[in-house]
From TrEMBL:
PANTHER family: PRESENILIN-ASSOCIATED RHOMBOID-LIKE PROTEIN, MITOCHONDRIAL, RHOMBOID PROTEASE. Belongs to the peptidase S54 family. The chain crosses the membrane at residues 78-97, 117-142, 154-174, 180-199, 206-226, 232-248, 255-278. It is a multi-pass membrane protein. GO terms for cellular component: membrane. It comes from Xylanimonas cellulosilytica (strain DSM 15894 / JCM 12276 / CECT 5975 / KCTC 9989 / LMG 20990 / NBRC 107835 / XIL07). It is found in: Membrane. Residues 113-246 form the Peptidase S54 rhomboid domain. This is Rhomboid family protein. GO terms for molecular function: serine-type endopeptidase activity. Its main location: membrane. The keyword Hydrolase applies. InterPro entries: Peptidase_S54_rhomboid_dom (IPR022764), Rhomboid-like_sf (IPR035952), Rhomboid_protease_S54 (IPR050925). Gene3D superfamilies: Rhomboid-like.
């Protein structure tokens, strides 16, 4: 028995997204040729690429850095906004939760047994004067908009944390053991300080920020209830780190970005231990 009729062609498989096999997609990635559903499609210079190819390209692309070694990123300064958010939430908790301020504020006499207070006090503010948190958050926003993209997220975090701790260490060295302090002022002054060498390294004019430091420094001595010691400690740490970041050798900026904060952290720790040992509490 024979026939001249051809066999029917096998039905072509319906293309499905490799990441979502339950979704049919007739759009293919211009790079790898695989189907990509709308959720996995990313616009490219020519056509559409899948999310996997975009990620692979990002990993293999050469790293772009700023003049002081920070990694260039697009988008908003997320670290700055995160710090502001933490302060805002903490301020609400100060108002709503009895004892919240006392649990996390800093005083030298409290820091010896609860060292976390050296940092946590930076996220608390005076509940009797709303201008305290408003000024600090404004200053953090302004300085963070500049420094975070220039330094990169990791070094910016190190600068903020160590400046805050530096402010508390200065209170330990220069103030009464029972003087309680709250506020992000040490962190803010650290950012002020870092801006001076960074601006100069980039060819900018640091006169305005120097003037701002001077004005706020004088206010700290004249207005009661302001810890000039915390301002000074944060400023010194910020100046030191800012200068070191700005003048790190080209090609070794990433190494210095990790090494220098570690050195500053060790110095602060040694100072704290020495002070507590000197007064006989260690």
């Amino acid at each position: 028995m024979s026939t001249d009729q051809p066999y029917p062609a096998a039905p072509e498989a319906v293309p499905v997204c490799p990441r979502h096999p339950d979704r049919v997609s007739y759009v293919r990635c211009q790079r790898c040729g695989r189907p990509a559903c709308p959720e996995c499609q990313r616009p490219a210079a020519v056509g559409i690429q899948c999310v996997d190819c975009v990620r692979q390209a990002a990993r293999t692309a050469p790293r772009t850095t700023t003049a002081v070694g920070g990694r260039v990123r697009r988008g908003r300064p997320v670290v700055t906004f995160t710090l502001i958010g933490i302060c805002a939430v903490s301020f609400v908790l100060q108002l709503a939760v009895p004892g919240w301020t006392q649990q996390f504020m800093y005083a030298p006499v409290l820091g010896v047994g609860e060292p976390f207070r050296f940092l946590t006090a930076a996220f608390l503010h005076s509940t009797g004067f709303f201008g305290h948190i408003l000024f600090n958050m404004w200053a953090l926003y302004v300085t963070g908009q500049f420094l975070e993209p220039v330094l990169g997220r990791a070094r910016f975090i190190a600068l903020c944390v160590l400046s805050a701790i530096g402010g508390s260490v200065a209170v330990l060295l220069l103030a009464s053991p029972v003087q309680a302090v709250v506020g992000a002022s040490g962190m803010v002054f650290g950012l002020f300080g870092a801006m001076v060498p960074v601006l100069r390294r980039l060819g900018g004019n640091a006169a305005q920020i120097i003037g701002l430091i001077a004005i706020n420094g004088v206010i700290g001595f004249l207005v009661p209830g302001i810890s000039w010691q915390g301002h000074l400690g944060g400023l010194v740490v910020g100046l030191a780190l800012g200068y070191a970041f700005a003048h790190a050798p080209r090609g070794r900026q990433k190494l210095f970005g990790w090494l220098l904060p570690a050195v500053v952290a060790v110095v602060l720790l040694v100072v704290v231990l020495a002070k507590y040992a000197a007064v006989g509490v260690l």
